[in-house]
Design brief:
Elements: H1 16-45, H2 53-73, H3 77-94, H4 96-99, H5 110-120, H6 125-142, H7 144-147, H8 154-272, H9 284-315, E1 323-325, H10 327-342, E2 347-352, E3 360-362, H11 364-380, E4 385-393, E5 397-404, H12 427-431, H13 438-448, E6 453-458, E7 462-470, E8 473-474, E9 480-481
Parallel strand pairs: 2-4
Antiparallel strand pairs: 1-3, 4-5, 5-7, 6-7, 8-9
Catalytic activity: ATP + protein L-histidine = ADP + protein N-phospho-L-histidine
EC number: 2.7.13.3
GO molecular function, one term: phosphorelay sensor kinase activity
């Protein structure tokens, strides 16, 4: 699986400072406006006439509050918070101009500005605000005569400054710690929110992918259904054509056999019984031509019989007359037929079976047809050496074979020769022309019996055609069954 970096499309998330300032500015502005109004009201009710600095400080606080609110509304949150922090830190120090240095507790309100600086501005702002407040306090102390306030003793002034420094530095430290915790919490919350958004986006993409996959699956199912219907129609048409072909082959075979039997019968009679024509003497050349007619007719009849068997097998109409078949007499008959086919060629026939072979459940006519076909092929393609017919009993079957020392069959052709109308191309096959149906029909007949047929061969050394047949077994009542 290939890893992908998923960057979800989302709206910009505010930084921790902006998010915190946006939440704190409105209540701070309301608080400052309330304090300014309350202080102004108290001065007016008490008819304060000590000096004008008190009114100036309150008006400055109102002006700062209005300016900060305006900056907030314009979206300049950083400058708005700096304005408030500066005012809340320095205006209490400026109260010395109105209330003096000795008993003025308003200066300690600058702690609020220092504490707010860490949360609303930055982590360094509390210490900067502390420095500004101490510096302003020292300046006002040195200019006490200018602002019209009595100068305290140096001992009192130094103690006042030290206390104010300690108080403001403590507030700055607390503000820094509080800002660190608050910003860490906000960063964690925002990071968690961003991760949640990424997971949500990934889930959406996964859901979209699944929906596309399901849609493609539906389309493939529909296509498969249409293809299946088309295949069913094609299969039905092919089966109909196959049945038509088989019926045509069976019909034509039956129609051709009758005139061929007549041709073969008359030609045989003319050759073997010329006396039936009286004193008419048939010329030797004519007899040779009639013999060729008989041979060609017999070849054509064999071809038609093979086609008829093939048509019956393909149409499923070939019925087997199964009986408990004793194999030794059938094998003896096959050897006698092979002897007649060999003639005077230097070929030795071998008998590789015992008379104690068990019976098999098979159709005698069809098994004889298989054996004769295999022996006939062995005689055609063996010029010297030996031909053997054998059988052996196994646990649940009997294996039969026909072995020869003929030309052999190449490995590439060993499976092909069992197909319809297939023959190995060589000089012997051209000399002994055949239909190419014999072996395919033999294999089908053996498979119909519940057995199988196979071949072992080597070019130049000969071939062995094997086939198996199921043995008969004794039933509970003593009957013989497959």
């Amino acid at each position: 699986m290939v890893a992908r970096n998923i960057v979800p499309a989302r709206t910009a998330v505010a930084t921790p400072d902006e998010s915190l300032v946006a939440d704190l500015l409105p209540p701070m502005l309301v608080l400052l406006a309330t304090l300014a109004g309350a202080a102004l009201g108290i001065l007016l009710l008490n008819r304060w006439d000590g000096n004008g600095w008190a009114y100036a400080i309150i008006l400055l606080l109102i002006l700062v509050t209005a300016t900060s609110d305006r900056l907030r509304r314009q979206g300049q949150l950083q400058w708005s918070s700096i304005t408030i922090v500066t005012a809340t830190t320095l205006l209490p120090i400026l109260s010395c101009t109105a209330f003096g240095f000795t008993d003025n507790n308003f200066v300690y309100l600058s702690v609020l500005g220092v504490f707010a600086a860490g949360i609303m501005v930055s982590s360094r702002a509390p210490y900067q605000a502390t420095q500004a407040a101490i510096l302003l306090y020292i300046i006002l102390l040195l200019a006490a005569d200018v602002i019209g306030q009595p100068r305290p003793t140096w001992f009192s002034a130094i103690g006042k400054i030290l206390f104010l420094v300690i108080l403001l530095l403590s507030a700055a430290t607390l503000s820094w710690a509080a800002a660190y915790v608050v910003r860490g919490t906000i960063n964690w919350a925002i990071d968690t929110a961003q991760k949640s958004e990424r997971r949500e986006q990934l889930l959406r993409e996964t859901q979209a992918t699944l929906e596309r996959a399901l849609l493609e699956w539906d389309l493939l199912n529909e296509q498969l259904y249409r293809t299946t219907l088309e295949l069913e129609e094609a299969r039905a048409a092919a089966e109909a054509a196959y049945r038509s072909k088989s019926n045509f082959m069976a019909t034509m075979s039956h129609e051709l056999r009758t005139p061929l039997n007549i041709i073969i019968g008359f030609s045989t009679a003319m050759i073997e019984h010329p006396e039936m024509y009286g004193d008419v003497k048939i010329d030797e050349q004519v007899l040779q031509d009639i013999a060729e007619i008989r041979r060609s007719g017999q070849h054509l009849l064999g071809l038609i019989n093979d086609i008829l068997d093939l048509a019956k097998i393909e149409a499923g109409k070939l019925e087997l007359n199964r009986t408990n078949l004793a194999l030794p007499p059938l094998l003896d008959e096959t050897i006698r037929t092979a002897q007649a086919l060999i003639g005077d060629r230097p070929i030795q026939l071998r008998r590789e079976y015992h008379d104690s072979l068990p019976t098999v459940l098979a159709d005698e006519v069809r098994i004889r047809q298989v054996l004769l076909n295999l022996v006939s092929n062995a005689c055609k393609f063996t010029h010297m050496g030996e031909i053997a017919v054998g059988a052996r009993a196994e646990t649940d079957q009997v294996v039969l074979w026909v072995r020869d020392t003929g030309i052999g069959i190449a490995p590439a052709d060993q499976e092909r020769i069992f197909q319809q109308f297939e023959q190995v191309e060589n000089a012997d096959t051209r000399h002994h022309a055949g239909t190419g149906l014999g072996l395919s029909i033999c294999r089908w007949l053996i498979e119909l019996h519940g057995g199988r047929m196979w071949l072992e061969s080597e070019v130049g050394k000969g071939s062995i055609f094997f086939f198996s047949l199921p043995r008969t077994r004794s039933g509970p009542d003593g009957s013989r069954t497959a």
